[in-house]
């Protein structure tokens, strides 16, 4: 048994919450844990929107490299930030329970208009750097002006309060985990069947070295197989579409009795027409193939 399990994480408020969640879970099983905070490219470059950053894995690469160098024993990630193909030598040993995967639209109260879709006034300036969120917001509200926004969750909320935007889009899971007080804002929950989240949104991925059988065994106690089953569908669609963070693709799977119901939102680019499709099947692998055949450009 390892004396101290070293957990690699980013240093944002949300990343630290996630790392402490895993640390507390492991300590409840009797293991001692330490955190090692690692800066990623995405943390260091704050002046560019996400679609301008070079390469892939800009919130995970440096942490994964530390794991391969054996400087840490495991890494905690927002699952949606991970590449769909694991680097050689690494594996996702456990996935967490799933927080509500919905997106939120936070609106300054003076910009609320109950006669409009999502209670957002005409022509509002909406902050988001996600191509998926941009594409879906334009699908429902062609009148809004979309502006890029960077920074961690509390920073983005403060930018909204400071008047840089009239509304912003972000994941409900992060807001809930940080227990942010949003009483001065109008909060609109965008339900995942209509405003489709990123594959694996709301789920934590716990990653370790493939060769580390002891760590994989320890982490198996934290693994949620029911969540893994559903996000396998979501992430497999993303993988076969050869898309990363820049692809305006939303995939949300849920199970109803013996069938899978999958909602997909897809556009070739964020400012192109957006398609919204629903698929139902009792066979997960056949469903993945069907979805990709339907949405992949010929």
Taking all residues together, what is the mean pLDDT? 91
Fraction of helical residues: 25-40%
Q: What order do the strands of the largest sheet run in, or round the barrel if closed?
A: 2-1-3-10-4
The CATH fourth-level homologous superfamily of the domain at 4-97 and 203-223: Periplasmic binding protein-like II
The CA-CA distance between the termini, in Å, is 52 Å
Low-confidence runs of at least 5 consecutive residues? 44-48, 50-56
CATH third-level topology of the domain at 4-97 and 203-223:
D-Maltodextrin-Binding Protein, domain 2
Q: Count up the helices.
A: 9
- Structural class determined from secondary elements: alpha/beta
Q: What is the makeup of the main sheet?
A: 5 strands, mixed
> Outline, from the CA principal axes?
globular
- What would CATH call the architecture of the domain at 4-97 and 203-223? 3-Layer(aba) Sandwich
What is the number of beta strands? Answer: 13
Radius of gyration: 19 Å
Overview of the molecule:
With 298 residues, the chain is of the alpha/beta class. Among the domains are: 4-97 and 203-223, Periplasmic binding protein-like II (D-Maltodextrin-Binding Protein, domain 2); 103-190, Periplasmic binding protein-like II (D-Maltodextrin-Binding Protein, domain 2, 3-Layer(aba) Sandwich), CATH 3.40.190.10. It is built from nine helices and 13 strands. The radius of gyration is 19 Å and the shape is globular.
């Amino acid at each position: 048994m390892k004396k101290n399990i070293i957990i690699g994480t980013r240093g944002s408020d949300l990343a630290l919450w996630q790392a402490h969640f895993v640390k507390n879970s492991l300590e409840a099983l009797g293991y001692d844990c330490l955190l090692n905070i690692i800066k990623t490219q995405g943390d260091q470059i704050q002046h560019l929107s996400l679609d301008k950053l070079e390469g892939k894995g800009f919130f995970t690469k440096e942490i994964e490299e530390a794991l391969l160098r054996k400087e840490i024993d495991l890494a905690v990630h927002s699952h949606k930030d991970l590449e769909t193909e694991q680097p050689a030598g690494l594996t996702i040993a456990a996935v967490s329970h799933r927080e509500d995967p919905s997106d939120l639209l936070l609106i300054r109260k003076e910009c609320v208009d109950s006669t409009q879709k999502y209670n957002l006034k005409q022509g509002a300036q909406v902050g988001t750097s996600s191509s998926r969120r941009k594409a879906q917001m334009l699908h429902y509200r062609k009148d809004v002006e979309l502006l890029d926004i960077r920074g961690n969750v509390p920073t983005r909320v403060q930018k909204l309060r400071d008047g840089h935007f009239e509304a912003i889009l972000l994941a409900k899971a992060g807001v809930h985990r940080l227990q942010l007080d949003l009483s001065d804002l109008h909060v609109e929950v965008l339900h995942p069947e209509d405003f489709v989240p990123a594959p694996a949104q709301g789920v934590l991925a716990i990653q370790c070295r493939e060769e580390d059988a002891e760590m994989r065994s320890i982490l198996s106690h934290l693994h949620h197989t029911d969540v893994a089953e559903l996000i396998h569908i979501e992430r497999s669609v993303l993988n076969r579409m050869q898309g990363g963070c820049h692809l305006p693709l939303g995939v949300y799977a849920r199970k109803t009795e013996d069938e899978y119901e999958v909602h997909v939102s897809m556009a070739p680019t964020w400012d192109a027409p957006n398609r919204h499709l629903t698929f139902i099947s009792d066979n997960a692998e056949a469903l993945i193939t069907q979805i990709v055949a339907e949405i992949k450009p010929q």
